[in-house]
């Protein structure tokens, strides 16, 4: 079978649907190229001198890893000259970054979590990059964070790269979810799965169980019932997985089903949750919905949330539709 490269695939998308114009295609190709460079750096590990702390902190109050900073720089650099962007926002930057004056400006905004799963970098476990594309609103300066405060449902594209045993790029431009694998010899992303669908039912849940004593009652009830297995009210046994890299946990769910949860708990109550709405919940939520799954805070659809600040955090429950709806129903029952 002749390989289908990312560029080819995007040209086909451009032909088939007017949502994926030349500018968006170019943007996605530039992001893919940046992910290739990040994959190379991650792959070098200790040999590349990229492990360990950067000695700096970010607006999230986290100590930055060298790879957080390097990945952020790679994405900024790659996209600065492109002509398809008006501005960028990142989990690792306090404020948006605009395209330097001398460069042509485009009609899109790019938002990204340059390195997801930072706690796994130094122990050689899969990490990734998550990105979201919005239209640049008329009349708002792209240096103003207000330009980025758009509901997830308005995204024109979203994707993630997962740097695991192989490097994969998974994306949607609103016409389903498609996965590409990096052919290291060719240095190109090749289409390996198209129109991925998440099974509506599952026997696998994913949550950091060390937070159990902090969970709200609906989540406690849901997990307890899963743990009771076939002797319990669910009448079937459940498996549990937690990689602690959202990209890897959600990629597993996109590949074989499951439900991923980082719910609101007593520890994260004050900040509204752990994961970031614009860089993590919205892009992953869009991809999950495009693959037939659901994405909720437990109380509302994530893609309907009107963001009010750049680094806003939200509770996240996403994956197999019927399982997410069950967790939402438990929240409704209180
Ligand atoms: O350490 P915990 O509580 O298991 O949290 C893990 C979660 O935190 C994250 O690492 C946060 O993302 P970053 O690594 O981009 O900060 C998610 O990828 C992951 O799902
Ligand atoms: Mg992250
Ligand atoms: Mg990150």
Keywords:
Fructose-1,6-Bisphosphatase, Chain A, domain 1, D-Maltodextrin-Binding Protein, domain 2, 2 domains, 5-stranded mixed sheet, globular, binds 1,6-di-O-phosphono-beta-D-fructofuranose, binds magnesium ion, fructose 1,6-bisphosphate 1-phosphatase activity, EC 3.1.3.11
- Provide the domain count: 2
Biggest beta sheet summary: 8 strands, mixed
- Strand/helix succession: HHEEHEEEEEEEEEHEHEEHEEEH
- Compounds present? 1,6-di-O-phosphono-beta-D-fructofuranose, magnesium ion
CATH class of the largest domain: Alpha Beta
Distance between the termini: 53 Å
What would you call the quaternary organization?
Answer: single chain
Architecture of the largest domain, CATH level 2? 2-Layer Sandwich
Spans of 5+ residues with little confidence (pLDDT < 50)?
none
Strand content: 15-25%
Number of helices: 7
Integer average pLDDT: 95
Write out the CATH superfamily name of the largest domain. Fructose-1,6-Bisphosphatase, subunit A, domain 1
CA radius of gyration is 19 Å
Strand tally is 17
Shape: globular
In which order are the strands of the major sheet placed? 4-3-5-6-7-8-9-10
CATH topology of the largest domain: Fructose-1,6-Bisphosphatase, Chain A, domain 1
Proportion in helices: 25-40%
Structural class: alpha+beta
Family: Belongs to the FBPase class 1 family.
GO biological process, one term: fructose metabolic process
GO molecular function: fructose 1,6-bisphosphate 1-phosphatase activity; magnesium ion binding
Catalytic activity: beta-D-fructose 1,6-bisphosphate + H2O = beta-D-fructose 6-phosphate + phosphate
